Structure formats: structure tokens, C-alpha cells
Amino acid sequence: xATVKEDWISKLEMHLADPSYKPSxxxxxxxxxxxxxxxxxxxxxxxxxxxxxxxxxxxDASLDYIVSWIDNLVDGAVITFTGGKGGxxxxxxxxxxxxxxxxxxxxxxxxxxxxxxGARKLHGxxxxxxxxxxxxxxxxxxxxxxDADPERYVLKGMDAIILNGASFNDSVxxxxxxxNLFIVPGKGPSTHAFTPTQRKGFMDVVADGYVALAGEKxxxxxxxxxxxxxxxxxxxLEATSNWYEKKVLNHTVFVLDQNEPESPKDSYQLAxxxxxxxxxxxxxxxxxxxxxxxxxxxxxxxxxxxxEYERRVTKNxxxxxxxxxxxxxxxxxxxxxxxxxxxxxxxxxxVLVNKGTSQDHDKVAKSFINTLCExxxxxxxxxxxxxxxxVPAMNYLGYIPDHQAITAARKRKQNIxxxxxxxxxYPELFQLVDGVADRLVTDIAQDxxxxxxxxxxxKSHELxxxxxxxxxxxxxxxxxxKSVLERARGAI
Length: 492
Known about the structure:
Layout: H1 2-17, H2 25-36, H3 41-47, H4 63-70, E1 76-83, H5 90-104, E2 109-115, H6 143-148, H7 150-153, H8 158-164, H9 168-171, E3 173-175, E4 178-184, H10 196-214, E5 218-227, H11 234-245, E6 249-257, H12 262-282, H13 287-304, H14 309-314, H15 319-329, H16 333-346, E7 349-354, H17 361-375, E8 379-384, E9 387-392, E10 394-400, H18 404-411, H19 420-425, H20 427-459, H21 462-467, H22 470-491
Parallel strand pairs: 1-5, 1-6, 2-4, 2-5, 6-7, 7-10
Antiparallel strand pairs: 3-4, 8-9
Helix pairs in contact: 1-22, 2-22, 4-20, 4-22, 5-20, 10-11, 11-12, 12-13, 12-17, 13-15, 15-16
């Protein structure tokens, strides 16, 4: 097998890095035989199935597919706050919930906030609580203040990492009186002024840094990525796609405004654009699969003619079912199963209603969730006793009303979780905020428990008994071989 690693894999890695490189037919045929040889570790991986039990929902997904998802997964989660409509209080909710969670779960988590919103509002909600940012100004400070005490007012953030190559540790700042919460300010030019490559480099630095910062605790990265359509705000899709490449749990919170009719409609379009971008990005190095998926998505949309959100609620086009049906018609059953497994086990969407009322807050959320889950097959299998049922793979977190305390805090460019006296003054409001935070934490914890259960399931398998820790390295090689081989076939 050393020859395979040294010769074939190294050449296929070249192919992955250089689209113009074309491996010979002989190499491809040899690799195919290696993968299918039942006597080799690669062949055993290829033919192995993992059965489901009471704690996992993986069904009969292949072992290599499951391990490609969970192997070496770090103890961390990215929580992305977004929405299709601007001005619904998304940045404030991100700041408020991050503070609430990191204060109330301080024994177990460490949180980092990062601002990818072009408007760069997030650090404004911590005015007076970040050393070096004691001014209410979000742009330039008076020159005399800088001359008098330059270090006090020079906050490094996104601009320092992208433009000056600063480290994560130099650009992350503690929130005063909240020892488990930090922030990377969205300072410098607008997020949109940087190139996609620069933004990805920034996200890579942050993705590694926040987990290291958490140490022995569970790391949470609260990411504010702005609002709008995927066409007008490409940063949203870049962020979500990039986080899904990392070995962390990913949870996206769509903030809907109950009082804005366009809010669920715009967020729905953003949600389906996000799902499609994540899938296409996932298979971008697998030439044939990427092409098949792109064509199938175009086919599904041509059949449904992309009806407006209001019509989707009453007459669902079942987009993903059409996509999977198209792939299976082309003898791509394994590919269709891979997509379905990914959708049902790795897409973690949540809905938070802003400015909701106690009577109607759940109507807009449930309509949004049910329609999106049916349209894109976002259902998970859940075992209840001896019966397996399907439930929506989306979570309704609850609502936060347009309360006077929130309005007052917004005017002070703060969030209510920074002000302890408000908890005593408005217990009912904080009961709602705590409930939203608890439901989000519970879902992330359940996701993490499922991963750990699956790890145990795989490590107890006979392959691990036979090959021990070497399996992880072999699994990495095997997955690399499969993905690059798929691209190689499409290039010849």
C-alpha cells in the first residue's frame, strides 16, 4: 500500500490542486481495482455498512461516508445569524444570545463573536465593555484622543488579520466582566471590499483560533453575516459554505420579523440558496458529481418554475425530491443517498422570531419550517420506542418581543444581557431570552452527543478491532482517492 500512497495518491493530489493535470487511464484503473479489492483495507471500507441503533440516526449509510463527516471533529460549533431582511435586529440578537449563553453556561463553553456583516455593527453592541473601545464612535475617533492614548483606541480586528497578517490572538478581545466571551471586531473596510480569497483566509484563521481559545471547554463561534439575498450579499454563502468545510458543528439561525411580510419570503430564498451553495461546494472537486448535481438542480427548478414563497406554502414543489429522482434515473443511487444523508444529518437550521407577540409568534415560524423541510427533504429519523418517525430537521427557538428594555439598550448600543439590573426589572422578558438560548444550546448538545455516539459505533466495529488507529489514516487516503478519482474520470 505504500506504493499506492507514494505514487498514485500523490499524482491524484496534483490533479486536485491543478485542474489541467490529467492522470493516465492506467493509474485510474489501478486505483479503481485497489478500492474494490475486498482483501485490501480500502476494499473493506468500501463494502462496510454501519447499522443504526437507538442513539444514532445514520441508518445504513456507508462507513466511509460517516467517518468522512465525524472523524477528528473538534469540540466546537459555529452559530451563524442571518436573514433575508435587513433591520430586523439580527446583530442585536446575536450579541444578546452570545452573552446570555456564555454567562449562563460559563462552566462548559467559551464563546467568540465575529462580524462578517458589511455594516460592521456587532462590536457596537459592546461599547464600554471592550478594552480599547470605550467610545460610542464606530468610525474614526478624534485625533486628540488617539494622540493622548493611542493604544487605548486602537482595536485590531478583521482588517489587521486580512491586511497585516495579524494573528487571531492579537485580534480577539475579551468582553469586560464576561470572562468566557470574546470578540473579533469587524473593523476596517466593509466586508464586501475584500476579495473572496481574503475573506476565506480570514475565516480560516478564525475557525482555528476560536477552538484553541476555548481550550478544554466547548468552543462556540457566534457569526453575524448580514442580511439580504445571496446575489446581493455573497458573503453569506461564502461564510456558510466555508464553515461547513470545517470539522465543527454548524448551526444557522434565520431571524424573522413577524411584523415584516417580506421577512420570511426573503429568508426562504436565502435558505434555499444557502443549501444549494453548501451542496455544490461540497462536491466541487468531484467533477462528475458536481456537474450532475448542478444539472439536476436546474432540472428541478425548470419543473417547479420557482414559485413565490406564498405559493410554496400552499403547493410545495418538492425541489429536492425532484433532484434526487433525476440522479437516480441516471443510476446515481449512491450519490443521491449521500446528498440525502448530508441534508438530514448536517444541515442544522433554526428560526428565531423577532418582535413577536405571544399569540401569533409561532405561525410565521412553523410555516417557514414546514415549507422548507418539505421542499428540501430536511427530515431526520427519530426512534420513539420501537417506531422510527421522521421529524423536521429544523428547530424553532422561540420569539423575542419588541420590548422597551431592548429598545433602550439598542439606543445605548448595548444588549440587554450586558445589563444585570434589567433581569430583575423585567423577569418575563429574560425568561423568553433564556428559553431561546436554552433551546439553541440543547440542540447543539444533542448534535454533539450524536457525533460521539457514532464515533463509538464506528470504533467498536470489527475494522477498528483489526486495524486500530491506522484506520483513520487509511480512511483519509480512501476518501481522498474516491473524491479525486471522481474528478479524474470527468477530466478524461
